[in-house]
Write a structure and sequence with these properties.
The structure is a homodimer.
Chain A (H helix, E strand, L loop, with lengths): L1 H17 L9 H24 L6 H8 L3 H4 L6 H25 L6 H18 L1 H8 L10 H8 L1 H15 L15 H14 L5 H22 L11 H16 L9
Helix pairs in contact in A: 1-2, 2-3, 2-5, 5-6, 5-7, 5-8, 6-7, 6-9, 6-11, 6-12, 11-12
The structure holds a DNA duplex.
DNA sequence: AAGTAATGAGAGCAGTGCTCTCTCATTCAG
DNA sequence: CTGAATGAGAGAGCACTGCTCTCATTACTT
């Protein structure tokens, strides 16, 4: 069963990626194998960052690896597999940076944490536009990310965001403002109840839906900037624009400005 | 100058696309040429809708056209050129649907118009995910849309949105709510002043920035849904979720709910 | 040390974008 | 109405892609 071996090798590599070295020494062969897969992922990441996802070529990676193209198929099932690896890799890097940025702000400063999360997403996206595009842009042609391997890393940002909002609510510092707090329809309420149960949340429906909006809106703003939807010179003060957006979004989500009483 | 001829042919075709028939009869040869380009665009649109932008192949289009691959290069400079044509085509279709949806609501019902715009965008995007992805997803590998040909059609939605918001403001029915109305920093104020001048708007800075946020947020929500970021079953009541988002976004932009006094 | 399993090379298939040349039909000018 | 200019299509070809298959070698395991 060659597939099983390949799977095992990849698992080992993902471990190696996230935990610096292979957790278990294993056999020397498996270590060498994990190293090669790690090299492939590294080279793939470089190509991805340089030329974009659709231009990612296994043959080019093979050339950089100093090996004939068919050899890489010993380590990576196909191009999709490599894309999946790079997807996980990118999700984790983004997740790490977001976690670090959020963690650097005092836990009780919910608004500060929210802003830190947003800025971390934007800064990573601007620094790694091609990899950001792989995660949040149009799905690659015919490529569908295997949910069982990507949902974990892929949900880290929204989980961090949910954590902030739920923490704020439990601390009594989350409340909707504005003229409207639209009624939550029955079907949506069901979805939100499932989410609340899954993550053990206390946030009520309207605020949870607002949090979802803040989430999509954050990525909407970042995507427009990264994908060039703002045009070349319509907005020059993009950092200020984003800061304004973040402040409004915090308000949308129900977070009070730092120091403000609810 | 073969390029000039090609350009002329394409212009003729774009006319034909938007105005049903060629405005001027011209020579029979030019009519045949325009027809062929229109066929290529039509086939390209089908392939695009079916297999996505990155899988769009000039050779496949040529096959469907019943012609050898090199022949299509008589009509389309290269693959990018075809993508640009399809981009314009899609922008215009979206623009048409948005305009129609907005126009179907009384001019004074600003909130209704805003909601109609949002729903039109979402419905078109869900109906044409590949074409939506071409417009608002990750830029195609190495492809950069030529601004001089795409900015016109590409700005129709935001212009429609701006029209609604400015109309509401002039009617005295636009005002920010929420605990925060963040100060607009100097650089951003400059950008907004330019926009205000360019489109002859009356909307003040904070509201204009909020309108921008409503715009990016609208597309953020649609993109997340179209690109599968919500996961397969996290949200099942997506229409209700979107309606909730739209209502909150209208509030963010400063629009009063229908019937509500400001 | 012998046997086995992983590895890499190489050839090959089908597809891609794109260029070039050649032929043929259409169109236009004189 | 004839001859030249022009446009269109075919076909070959180049360089590239993903991917499969076979074959020899290498490295590890028992």
């Amino acid at each position: 069963m060659p597939e099983d071996r390949i799977e095992a090798g990849i698992e080992a590599d993902v471990d190696a990626l996230s935990a610096a070295a292979a957790s278990r020494p294993r056999t020397p062969r498996e270590r060498a194998r994990a190293q090669t897969v790690a090299d492939i992922v590294r080279l793939g990441r470089e190509h991805l960052a340089l030329h974009g996802a659709a231009a990612l070529s296994l043959r080019a990676v093979a050339r950089d690896l100093g090996v004939v193209s068919s050899a890489v198929y010993r380590y990576v099932e196909n191009r999709e597999e490599l894309l999946t690896l790079l997807l996980i890799d990118a999700y984790n890097e983004l997740g790490d940076e977001v976690d670090a940025a959020v963690g650097a702000v005092p836990e009780a400063d919910f608004d500060g944490r929210f802003a830190a999360l947003g800025r971390a997403v934007r800064e990573w996206a601007l620094r790694e536009p091609s990899r950001y595009a792989l995660l949040f842009g149009s799905p690659v042609p015919g490529y569908r990310a295997p949910a069982e391997r990507t949902t974990g890393p892929g949900t880290r940002v929204i989980i961090a965001l949910i954590g902030i909002l739920d923490g704020a609510f439990r601390a009594g510092r989350l409340a909707a403002t504005g003229r409207r707090s639209p009624a939550v329809a029955a079907g949506l309420a069901g979805d939100l109840a499932k989410i609340r149960a899954e993550f053990g949340l206390a946030v009520p429906d309207d605020l949870l839906a607002r949090g979802t909006l803040a989430w999509t809106s954050l990525f909407g703003a970042v995507s427009f900037e990264v994908f060039g939807q703002y045009g070349p010179d319509t907005f020059t003060a993009r950092e200020e624009l984003f800061a304004h957006h973040l402040a409004v979004l915090a308000d949308v989500a129900g977070l009070p400005a730092a120091g403000a009483a609810v």
